[in-house]
Design a protein that fits this description.
The chain has 134 residues and is an alpha+beta fold. It contains four helices and eight strands; from the N terminus they run βββββββααααβ. α1 (60-77) packs antiparallel against α2 and α2 packs antiparallel against α3.
Length: 134
């Protein structure tokens, strides 16, 4: 019997770290994600994510911002990061898109998309389901 989760398109092949504005009260450590009290987000090799959400297109300038954003939302789903950080996390997504040379209008649409439809993805009730197969 195997156990697996579906819904992922990409898998990180080496660990990745970035300074963020998200500063939790305590150090956060999960299986694939670390977040320090100084805002350093580290996502470890093997982490899987789905790229741009909704009608978004997976271009090079959305890949690292979507990775970071998905990691933050996973921490919120796991109740490791206070959901009060969601507004800052969504704004950081927009900032990172702009830093990656995304057009201002597209970065604005990305931000509006997660503000409008992202809430359920940060909600612990919507954690990925574990499937089983022989």
């Amino acid at each position: 019997m195997i156990k697996y989760k579906s819904g992922y398109k990409y898998q990180l092949v080496e660990s990745y770290s970035i300074q963020t504005p998200v500063r939790p009260i305590d150090f956060i450590l999960s299986e694939y994600i670390e977040l320090t009290v100084l805002g350093v987000l580290t996502i470890h090799k093997g982490y899987a994510w789905d790229g741009a959400s909704g009608p978004g297109i997976d271009t090079k300038n959305i890949m690292s911002p979507s990775l970071e954003h998905d990691a933050f939302y996973q921490l919120m789903r796991q109740r490791l990061l206070d959901p009060a950080w969601r507004v800052a996390v969504d704004r950081f997504l927009q900032t990172r898109c702009l830093e990656n040379d995304m057009s201002k209008i597209r970065a604005w649409w990305v931000h509006r998309g997660v503000r409008f439809g992202g809430g359920p993805y940060a909600d612990p009730k919507n954690a990925k389901v574990v499937h089983e197969a022989p």
